[in-house]
Amino acid sequence: MTRAARLTALAALCLVTVVLLLPAAISVSTGGAVPGFIGELGWWLWPAVGVMVLVAVGLALWERGRGHETSNRTAALARVESRVKALLAASLAAQTQIKLGALKQPAIAVRVDGEEISSPDLEAVYDRLGHTMVLVGPVGSGRSTLLRELCLTLVERARNDPQAPIPVVVDLATWRAYGARKPTEFTAWLLREMNRRYGISRSAGTIWLRRERVAVLIDGLDEVPRVDRALCESELAPFASVVSSTGPIDNLPSVFVEPLTRGQVLEYIASVSPRLDSLESALTPEIWERLDSPLALNLLALTHLDKQVDTIGSDFVGSFVVERLSGQRGAGPTIRALKFLARLGRPDLGAPVHMPHRRAWLPLLPTRPLWLLFVRAVPAAYAGGVCAVSFITALRFGLWPASVFVVAASSLLVLVNKVPRVFHPPGRAHGIVTAALGFLAGVFGGLLVGLAGLWLGAIGTPWPYLVAYVFVVVASFFLALGFVPGDAPVPWALLIAAAPGISMIWTGPYVVLAGMGVGFSAGVAGGIFAAAVGRVWRTVIPVQRQRMRQGRPWWVQPAVPVLGTVGLLGGIGALGSWGTALGVALGLLVTPTAARDYVWPFDSLAEVAAEGITRPLSLGELSFRRKALLHLAQDRLLLTRVDGEYRFPHVALRDHLASCDPTALVRATRR
Fold first, then answer.
1. How many of the other CB atoms lie within 10 Å of CB of 428?
2. Please, is 206 exposed, middle or buried when counting C-beta atoms within 10 Å of its C-beta (0-12, 13-18, 19+)?
3. Which segments of 398-514 are extended strands (E)?
4. SS3 content of the chain, % helix, strand, coil (to 5)
5. Are 516 and 587 in contact (CB under 8 A)?
6. Angle at CA of residue 375, ends 374 and 379, nearest 5°
7. Contact by Cβ (8 Å): 219, 144
């Protein structure tokens, strides 16, 4: 209520000052009449405005400085507790407890560096070390679970003690996704994560961090690329209270997670009797050697629970994956999709339902879809587009304008080509269906482009003769400026602009303007498409290019001019006007400008087109039924869901799927 009253007072002061006092003060200062309700107080208007402004500034500063107020703190603690509990409930350990009906996991002990005695009380160790430490342990040792449980303990402490800091758990797996490396980057990322995960505003987060009112618990340091690890450690040091890592960090005390003992494992198996009664007899010396972590115990228990196998391999993660998918028909697409998602390296998988930027996943694709795109789909789409536009041009304006369009458009493809080479197929030539679909897409797009060109050409019909004449000459000059290369294109642009200026003496400006509309529309579409294909090509990594043998430049493929000539059939019986043909050629001069990556708005449109071109390439890895696939993987415990975001239940499972051989895994599930 205090904050609501403060904000209401601030809004009222601003409203009264801006709407009432300030206009009245200006009126009095300029010799105007004093409003009747003010009376003799007219001379005090400016001092009153000043006082109002000072009070409003004070209230605004008070609001900004009260980032630690009770209402914000209570709400933040509730959101932290809710999210951390959701993370714990979605973990593989929690899913194992549900499956087995177990009350709890084996207790994990920790040991401070340099000491011999282990302790199961991480909170006491945290207090003894001055609220700063590194939780060290191998993958699967339970570090993340301990970190989240400690966070919940600190949440209760912060509720009971107003001076205790607010704990927040952040995942460093997303740190590398933000911008260029700057000294303040980690702070900006941390504030962004606190706002995104826990609803803590940037202003409140800045104040809390500066006043040490936040205890930052950091997970996922091992997900940071090694080249950035040292920089990340140096930047997180001023903020971090607890860091989860597989190795120590300089200048921070280390706390080691102890491995599970044989007695703890046997005690856990006995606690869920009779569901795991036969597991103890299946434990060979090789299995005992690797059965030293909560992850290994959970995977082993789930695998044994479902199949009651007599012999368990030492590859716990692989056996678990095979077991999870063994009862599914057609496991191949699911395995390929999970491998694709695992290789994305994202901490959450909500984005693949709506695919992320192509830079994140295009380098993961095999050779074949890329070859189909650059060798089949792109030339076919160009051919379809040229065919459709030439057909509309021939049908509307006659044979000669359409012929000029086909020749000019085919030639300009050489000029705006952004893909230097294409690739011969690895075996027999395939991709006829892809080429047909690309051609149909090009025809559809070409029809839209042609209709848009007719509309653009008809805009100038009601213009006066002189206005249309001047517009054609000026537009031709500026189109030529972008077309002619070199440092001094003005003389050439003037020469090109003189062509319509002279020809319109006989043809009139309207026929030239009609042809320019079609040429301009087609030139913009063709240039943007060429730039989009070039952007996709630049995303293809060298390893993918080396897998494919290079061949002829794609723009010399005869499909574009040959199929474009088919559109000339629409002009049989009507030759058309040379003025319209000249207008088509002039409009096509925009093609090189539209194909440049630095000209607005063509660069933005090219980026949108590049994303649209690449999206179908992901269908071989992720089908249209992505949500159904994610739900299926969640049911099989291969994915979990937290706050609407899918993620792998453990990094070891993700890494195994990322490096697996899908064909071998499918054979194993069938066996």
1. 5
2. middle
3. none
4. 65, 5, 30
5. yes
6. 85
7. yes
The per-residue pLDDT for range 148-177, each reduced to its tens digit, is 999 999 999 999 998 899 999 998 877 765
Two structure tokens written together for 662: 């899908």
What CA–CA distances, in Å, run from 232 to 143, 178, 240, 468?
Answer: 19, 13, 11, 62
Which of 382, 379, 380, 406 lies closest to 392, judged by CA? 406
Q: What is the largest distance, in Å, between two alpha-carbon atoms of the chain?
A: 102
How sure is the predictor about 53, in pLDDT bands with cuts at 50, 70 and 90? confident
Query: Six-digit token pair at 86?
Result: 């959701």
User: Residue 423, SS3?
Assistant: strand
Which pLDDT belongs to residue 310? 44
CA distance 326 to 264: 30
pLDDT, position 428: 53
599-610 pLDDT, tens digit each: 888 999 999 999
Strands 240-245 and 133-136 come out as: parallel
Say if residues 336 and 631 touch (Cβ distance below 8 Å): no
Amino acid occupying residue 138: P
CA distance 213 to 206: 10
Secondary element (H or E) of residue 536: helix 509-539
> Shortest CA distance to 417 belongs to which of 521, 567, 555?
555
Return d(Cα 654, Cα 346) in angstroms, integer: 10
Determine the angle formed by the axes of helices 399-415 and 578-587, rounding to 10 degrees. Answer: 20
First to last CA, the chain: 66
Q: What backbone torsions phi and psi does residue 241 show, to the nearest 5 degrees?
A: -95, -45
CA angle, 258 as apex, 253 and 263 as ends, to 5°? 160
Contacts 24+ apart (CB under 8 A), 302-309: 302/95, 302/96, 302/99, 302/637, 304/276, 304/278, 304/279, 305/99, 305/100, 305/275, 305/276, 308/278, 309/282
Structure-model confidence comparison of residues 420 and 565, the more confident one: 565
User: Any bridge partners for residue 641, and if so which?
Assistant: 646
- Length of the chain as a residue count: 671
For residues 470 and 477, give the distance between their C-alpha atoms in angstroms, rounded to a whole number.
11
Q: Answer whether residue 376 shows pLDDT above 50.
A: yes
What integer is the mean pLDDT of 36-51?
62
Backbone angles phi, psi at 646, to 5 degrees: -85, 145
Q: Residue 551 above 80 pLDDT? A: no
Rounded to whole angstroms, the Cα distance separating 497 from 229 reads 59
Give pTM, 2 decimals: 0.74
HSE-up of residue 100 (Cα within 13 Å, Cβ side): 30
Q: In whole angstroms, what is the distance from residue 80 CA to residue 148 CA?
A: 10
Cα angle vertex 15, ends 14, 20, to 5°? 110
21 within 8 A of 45, measured Cβ to Cβ:
yes
For every residue of 148-216, DSSP letters joined together read HHHHHHHHHHHHH-TTSPEEEEEEGGGGGGSSS--TTHHHHHHHHHHHHHH---HHHHHHHHHTT-EEE
Instruction: List phi, psi (to 5°) of 119.
Output: -140, 135
At 96-106, the pLDDT tens digits run 888 877 767 88
Q: In a 3-state reduction of DSSP, which class is residue 242?
A: strand
